[in-house]
Specification:
- The protein has 93 residues and is an alpha+beta fold.
- The chain contains 4 helices and 3 strands; from the N terminus they run βααααββ.
- A 3-stranded antiparallel sheet has the order 1-2-3.
- The longest helix is centred in the middle third of the chain and has 14 residues.
């Protein structure tokens, strides 16, 4: 039976966050930033900008989510909060 654990998503675990987000679905392009941006701001950003927004959020703390590990390998991600103020995210333009 596999061992499943969770850890806070911190900047130290950036590579694991990216591995979990790019495992399928919309995670790779979304970077879990969609829930914290207004629609017009979302549409004005690129994947790379959203990656940088998530990186900055992880760097600033507190951890906005958890990474799930299956047998020690990153396998999933969930945003749990705290919800950042929308003004904390800078979009182009």
């Amino acid at each position: 039976m596999p061992t499943i654990t969770t850890e806070p998503a911190t900047i130290r675990r950036w590579d694991d966050v990216q591995h979990a987000l790019t495992g399928g679905g919309d995670g790779a392009s979304c970077q879990c930033i969609w829930p914290v941006l207004r629609n017009k701001d979302w549409n004005a950003t690129t994947r790379e900008q959203r990656m940088e927004m998530l990186r900055a959020e992880l760097d600033a703390g507190p951890p906005p989510g958890l990474i799930a590990y299956v047998d020690g390998a990153p396998a999933g991600w969930i945003r749990i909060g705290p919800a950042p103020r929308r003004s904390a995210f800078r979009t182009p333009g």
